[in-house]
What does this fold into?
Amino acid sequence: MKALVTAGGRATRMRPITHTTNKHLIPLANKPMLAHAVGKIVDAGIRDIVVNVNPGETDIQKVIGDGSAWDARITYVEQVGGPRGLAHIVRNARPYLGEEPFLFFLGDNIILGSIREFVHAFEEQHLDCMLALARVKDPQRFGVPVIEGDRIVRVVEKPETPPSDFAVTGIYVYSPRIFDAVTAITPSARGEYEISDAHTWLIDNGAKVGWREITGWWKDTGKPEDLLEGNALILNELLPEDMIIEGAVHPEARIQGRVAIGKGTTIGPGCLIRGPVTIGAGSTVTDAFIGPHTSIGDGATIAQTEIEHSIVLDRATVRCGCRIVDAIIGKDASVTPADETLPKGHRLIIGDNSVVEL
It folds into this structure.
């Protein structure tokens, strides 16, 4: 079985971070989001992976590579014709998938645990389509199944009045019949080929469609607050062997709980780091408190600051003498005290879609 993974789109709700970084490369627990998806797929025994990317994309290929890091093979396919919906991605990838069953995994989805049993259930039940469902508080953001008894009879895309509190997650397994479905459907009112319409077509045309509820957590990282929650969830699940201290920690610094510190990073005196926390390589932390559920990238500087439940990307400088929470700080960004320069006041250079609380 092969896998098809989405890594395209523009992620407008994640701006300004995604002005310069592909959403799927934003780190969660200091590992690119897309790498978490590839890891789940390989864990399920699938090592032939097709990744859908935007036309002209090069960064993902450089960061994720050819798959050899997972003992797998990754082929990159550009999304011809621009973003036209998930069903269009399946149509576009057909020449690379062949006429065999495949796993379809949205690259911005993260889940707890393995998907092996999900794939095995598809095979054992000889299905044409297997959908992973999760109970959510806001099903109107997703495709929502209409369930009668134990059968899905229809899937409605982003309904104003959801028929259930289930969402169809971004994890599917298909037989080649899905190609008939994505070819038969027409664009929706928003001009996209909806994967929900393809699922309904399969049901209406006698295909065997099954479902299974995800029993652990599932997170669609569609908004900044989702990224922070996803980062926290992954940090909570990291094993002790993942939390290795390779940097230099001053004897007067305090490390509490599960903390990972990369090579070349220095933790100075007067620091308290309370896990789960990951700090990348070559960073410097002085006179700072780093609280739970925080990830700090490579080459960052954190000083005279308290920061918690946040994501700090590579080479950022945070030295502001205040407490920061629920923040995403981009690469090479600078957060410094307002009283270091004249005139006194808050100096702001704010890009499109930024959020600032003073």
The domain at 2-236 is CATH 3.90.550.10 (Spore Coat Polysaccharide Biosynthesis Protein SpsA; Chain A). The chain has a mean pLDDT of 86. The first helix runs from residue 17 to 20.
